[in-house]
Amino acid sequence: MNNNKFNPLELPSGKKRLLLHSCCAPCSGDIMYKLKESNIDFTVYFYNPNIHPHEEYVLRKEENKVFAKKNNIPFIDADYDPRNWFTLTKGMEMEPERGKRCSVCFDMRFIKTAEYAIDHGFDAISSTLGISRWKDMEQINKSGDYAASKFTNLIYWKYNWRKENGSHRMIEVSKQEKFYMQEYCGCVYSLRDTNEWRVKNNRSKIEIGKNYYSYLDKKTTNN
Ligand code: SF4
User: Fold this and answer.
1) Is the dihedral of CA 82, 84, 89, 93 positive or negative?
2) Ligand 1 in reach of 102 Cβ (< 6 A)
3) Which atom of ligand 1 lies at the shortest distance from residue 101's CA?
4) Residue 40: is its pLDDT beyond 70?
5) Per-residue model confidence (pLDDT) at position 133
6) Is the beta carbon of 104 within 6 A of some atom in ligand 1?
7) d(CA 39, CA 28)
């Protein structure tokens, strides 16, 4: 349940059906509540072949799926095709986060979302990726526009999900739902770089599947 007061949302340009690309349950939780309470016709589309290893991918996906089911929100479990992701990002292994590799990663996910949208009667796409303060919103919006521009009658909805207390609510919903707390962006290179940073800062390396948002047992998190 969403206890947050917010102004109801509306799809722009008279659009009727939204396909919402989701990266994970924590980023999408409050957004899904807001869309539902605004009576927007939407479906969640989980396509994230960037996530590594597979165990982490399954954790993030299943949690998002369970939350959607609990709230009667349609959820599309798209392909996990990491080989394509590795092919597209070849040569960009050492790029920093928010660099060129991330643009390719966003493009790949948004183009697939746009293709599914066109094939299944959606006229707008958007993504939960931009709610994270670790991400470059301009970079994400650029990829979203690029993907939608490949098709007529499809728009990328550039809504700033951080608005209306979005960033704060994202954490609150994650705590209420005791979501899994991922500690790196997703790909093998972000895992490598985050671990390198942690070791330099005398912190232990990431343990997949260990940390959860929780009100009840703060000891389960070390972030
Ligand atoms: S750091 Fe994140 S956005 Fe960038 S390439 Fe890796 S998974 Fe994709």
Assistant:
1) positive
2) yes
3) 5
4) yes
5) 86
6) no
7) 16
CATH code for the domain in which residue 109 is found: 3.40.50.620
pLDDT at 86: 98
Cα-based distances in Å from 56 to 52, 59, 116, 161, 184 = 6, 5, 24, 25, 10
pLDDT given at position 215:
57
Q: Are 212 and 222 in contact (CB under 8 A)?
A: no
**0.70 exceeded by pTM:** yes
127 found inside a domain: yes
- What are the pLDDT digits (tens) for 152-200? 999 999 999 998 889 999 999 999 999 999 999 999 999 999 999 999 9
* Cβ(190) – ligand 1 distance below 6 Å: yes
| Minimum CA distance residue for ligand 1 atom 5 | 102
Average pLDDT of the segment spanning 70-78:
98
Let me know if residue 194 belongs to a domain.
no
180 phi and psi angles, rounded to 5 deg: -65, 135
Cβ proximity of 19 and 155 under 8 Å: no
Q: What is the band of 3 on the pLDDT scale with cuts at 50, 70, 90?
A: low
d(CA 129, CA 212): 20
- Tell me the one-letter amino acid at 40: I
Number of domains observed in the structure of the chain: 1
Domain that holds residue 148: 15-169
Report cis status (omega within 30 of 0) of the bond before 53.
yes
Q: How many CA atoms lie within 13 A of 43 on its CB side?
A: 20
